Amino acid sequence: MNVNRDVKTAGRTLALFEAFRRARAPMTLTRLAAELGAPISSCHGLVRTLSARGYLYTSERTRTIYPTKRLFEIVETIARHDPILERVGPVLAELRDATGETVLLGRRQADAVLYLDVVEGRHTVRYSARPGDIKPLHSSAIGKALLGRLDAGERAALFARMPLARYTPATIIDIGALEADLATGTSHGWFATRGENVADVMGMAVTADAGGEVLGLAIAAPLARAEANEAAYAHALLAARDAIEARGAGA
């Protein structure tokens, strides 16, 4: 088995579906190959394989390619039976309804944060993200909450191998300043970013223990609106954390 080739093929398959998400329309083989940065011959082989499995179809009239609903139905079934989302999904919706803001559920994956679920806020102007988005530990609210769970030695080892990249002018890239910020979050019981990952967006986050999993729960909103409602949002966030942990204890 050629592991490198298999990994490349898996990556190219995912990139194919992401290309259709961006295009929102059928594509010719030539355009699809250009989107993937792949030779037409390789792209043709991938399309042929996916078509044989029922994931793509080709128009006889225009010779354009588009995904079938097969992938959607598989993903929908998987999502319905996600044990974490089954348990905490109602709490996320309640938190969104209580604040009107976008609610994020994430967990640590290697040296980053992986969003497991996103419940969009009800405001016209709101923070938007997608499940599967990967965010930095040091500049995202959930990341800070997860860092706050580590002891000083664990954080020092992490920072030694993880560069503190700057994403906005407000990103904290000094370890001493970040440690002070984490200490403030620990004293408050929740952690915040203020335009540190996305300019003019404030995130507020806590961690929750749910059925043996450490999850990060956050509210994200335009900075001015979040600061004006900071106390109320913090109260709602902590209540949601308690509700998640109560559900986890009963699982």
Structure description:
The chain is of the alpha+beta class. It has two domains: 3-73, Arc Repressor Mutant, subunit A, CATH 1.10.10.10; 82-249, GAF domain (Beta-Lactamase), CATH 3.30.450. Helix content is 51%, strand content 20%. It has helices at residues 3-23, 29-36, 40-52, 70-80, 83-99, 141-147, 152-161, 175-188, 223-228, 230-249; strands spanning 56-58, 65-67, 102-109, 112-119, 134-136, 191-194, 201-210, 213-222. It has a six-stranded antiparallel β-sheet, sandwiched between helices. A two-stranded antiparallel ribbon has the order 1-2. Helix 2 crosses helix 3 and helix 5 (83-99) runs antiparallel to helix 10 (230-249). The radius of gyration is 21 Å and the shape is globular. It starts with a helix and ends with a helix. The model has no long low-confidence stretch (mean pLDDT 93).
Topology summary:
Blueprint: H1 3-23, H2 29-36, H3 40-52, E1 56-58, E2 65-67, H4 70-80, H5 83-99, E3 102-109, E4 112-119, E5 134-136, H6 141-147, H7 152-161, H8 175-188, E6 191-194, E7 201-210, E8 213-222, H9 223-228, H10 230-249
Antiparallel strand pairs: 1-2, 3-4, 3-8, 4-5, 6-7, 7-8
